[in-house]
Sequence to fold (380 residues):
Amino acid sequence: MADETKNPPRKRAAKKAAPKKTSASNGKAASPQTVPDAADFRMYTEGGHTHESLGLEKDELLEMYRSMMLQRRFEERAAQMYGRQKISGFLHLYIGQEAVSTGTIHALEPTDPIITAYRDHGLGLARGMTANESMAELFGKIDGSSRGKGGSMHFFDVEHHFYGGHGIVGGQIPLAVGLGFAGKYKGTGAVAVGFFGDGAINQGAFHEAANLAALYEIPVLLVCENNGYAMGTSVDRSVSQPDLYKQAYGYNMTGALVDGMDVFTVYHAMRELAKQAREENKPALVEIRTYRYRGHSMSDPQKYRTKEEMEAKKNEDPIIKLKAYLIDHKLADNAQLDAIDDEVKAEVNASVEFAENSPYPPLETMYEDVYVQEDYPFIV
Ligand SMILES: Cc1ncc(C[n+]2csc(CCOP(=O)(O)OP(=O)(O)O)c2C)c(N)n1
Ligand SMILES: [Mg+2]
Fold:
């Protein structure tokens, strides 16, 4: 059941909101009554968490650091390989946004389904995809996660409950709600998490999906990764209400604003919101403010933002922040963290070799893996 103190039912709200009758006698129009603010907005922007306050052990912190480093090093190498024309098609890098993927994954159960847009390498790696299958997918090789037929935008790993990798802006949001619905229907207790960019918030698909998520009380978190830009268009230029989390009010659900440059804050917010969704079937719209350090994709002259802005944001680098925390709290020293970096680099280098050596998918496999159902009509 919805919490009525925070979310009054529509009928009651409508009754209270009815405008007063204008008194004609004094000649003045009565000002309309204001609607009581029943919004359930949560701010996760203050920071100040410690690993103790969050109940995180040293091993888990080091695992978070490793995960973020793997995503960063993997993509730096992917960018190089793109330059050498080993990767074709699009390549959208997640560099700068790693606290979002890592903080979320650590806050969820490994069986909670997740789904995202085309900027998908970070989330896939954070969820447990290997560097080998990921690099091979970028190279279009048969050992890739989608057998080389998906490429950068279509990572997919059912075993790890990662449902892709989607190229149509906003297209995966209704699927996220469907994943949440399936969990509720089957009684699995899972919470689905659907990621999308700030550019997707104005798509009809978001609004239709958000409405049903709240109406059907679906355990789903709709996570808007607001990195400030949709290609070259800033949020301020394209959205009438740039506080994107406020869209939650229109759908009678929790809205949350989260600092996405701090992995502890993301972890804290997502853990609380996932618990609420799991235990009370309450969906939420979660706006996580983050920043991508690279262009929209590989061919982006980035004329829409200043060097000063980028430099300022680089001072907020979530990986450097976690590293400083680990050292300050004597949980690791520089040598240990460098060793993690070396291990990750070796793993990524090996993945390039693996991808080079993997064959291209044979032509006759072209129509395989298009539909799950093997006898689906229209397949030649
Ligand atoms: C329906 C649709 N319209 C337009 C495009 C072209 N397009 C690809 S990415 C993109 C910008 C999306 O930005 P955002 O949602 O903020 O995600 P980000 O790239 O910042 O991660 C657009 C308009 C598309 N893929 N799908
Ligand atoms: Mg964006």
Notes: The chain has one domain: 38-298+305-353.
